[in-house]
UniProtKB/TrEMBL annotation:
Entry protein name: Phosphoribosylaminoimidazole-succinocarboxamide synthase
UniProt family annotation: Belongs to the SAICAR synthetase family.
Gene3D superfamilies, per the entry: ATP-grasp fold, B domain (3.30.470.20), Phosphorylase Kinase, domain 1 (3.30.200.20)
UniProtKB keywords: ATP-binding, Ligase, Nucleotide-binding, Purine biosynthesis
EC number(s) from the headed UniProt entry: 6.3.2.6
Signal peptide: none
GO terms assigned for molecular function: ATP binding; phosphoribosylaminoimidazolesuccinocarboxamide synthase activity
Catalyses which reaction(s): 5-amino-1-(5-phospho-D-ribosyl)imidazole-4-carboxylate + L-aspartate + ATP = (2S)-2-[5-amino-1-(5-phospho-beta-D-ribosyl)imidazole-4-carboxamido]succinate + ADP + phosphate + 2 H(+)
Gene: purC-1
Any single Pfam family the record assigns to this protein: SAICAR_synt
């Protein structure tokens, strides 16, 4: 079977309706213009994603997660992925501060949900429900993804608050399983979310790499320790 390789992961199909997600040590930013490799990053993203998928499953949210299949590998259910990214924002940061007259760090009165079309060549443009329908995603499907995304936000925001972390924003991807259910897929990691220390506002995510804020692995390790209470063992 064909192995798909993206910027941060390899997707290895199996014969039994399952897939291996192999997390790489590569980091990219600004549509691949900035690149680097950090030893242990793949391990950290795989382990953090596993922790967060388990939290969501325990709170009644269906995900593709089945288990850990190695240090930097997860085994997941095979999904037919939608060509959309669903972004939930709780605090003004990133591209939102360029689109709204609000200062970075402003807490939003309610979460904002945004849709983006997954296409590197087009720069993953923001779209709306009308665009999604033209791309073959029905209004009903989009509404269900948004509903799940807001539930994910509710669960994870509480979870991170209890650990002294602000869930600033995050990206989700969804797919449909063989039973026709819309299920959360991809990953939930510091590569796809913004996390700030609640006291210091220190970034614990890929912004450390994007904007040269310090050591990326140290930031990811700090996040891992907050979530698990354990020291990382990837080195």
């Amino acid at each position: 079977m064909e192995v798909y390789e993206g910027k941060a992961k390899r997707v290895i199909p199996l014969d039994d309706g399952k897939v291996i997600l192999e997390f790489k040590d590569d980091a990219t930013a600004f549509d691949g213009k900035k690149k680097a490799r950090f030893k242990g990053k793949g391990w950290l993203n795989a382990q953090i994603s596993a922790v967060l998928f388990k939290v969501l499953e325990e709170n009644g949210i269906k995900t593709h997660f089945i288990g850990i299949a190695g240090d930097n590998r997860l085994i997941v259910e095979r999904l037919k992925m939608y060509p959309l990214e669903v972004v939930v924002r709780n605090v003004v940061a990133g591209s939102l501060k360029k689109r709204l007259p609000l200062e970075e760090g402003t807490e939003l009165p309610e979460p904002i949900v945004e849709l983006y079309y997954k296409d590197d060549g087009l720069g993953d443009p923001m779209i709306n429900h009308y665009h999604a329908k033209v791309l073959g995603v029905s209004e009903e499907e989009v509404r269900e993804m948004e509903r799940i995304a807001l539930k994910v936000n509710e669960v994870l925001r509480k979870y991170f608050t209890e650990r002294g972390i602000i869930l600033v924003d995050f990206k989700l991807e969804f797919g449909k399983n063989e039973r026709g259910e819309i299920v959360l897929g991809d990953e939930i990691s510091p590569d796809t979310c913004r996390f700030w220390d609640a006291e210091t506002k220190e970034s614990l995510d890929k912004d450390v790499f994007r904007f040269d804020k310090g050591d990326l692995i140290s930031a990811y390790e700090k996040l891992y320790e907050r979530l698990t209470g354990e020291s990382p063992t990837h080195r």
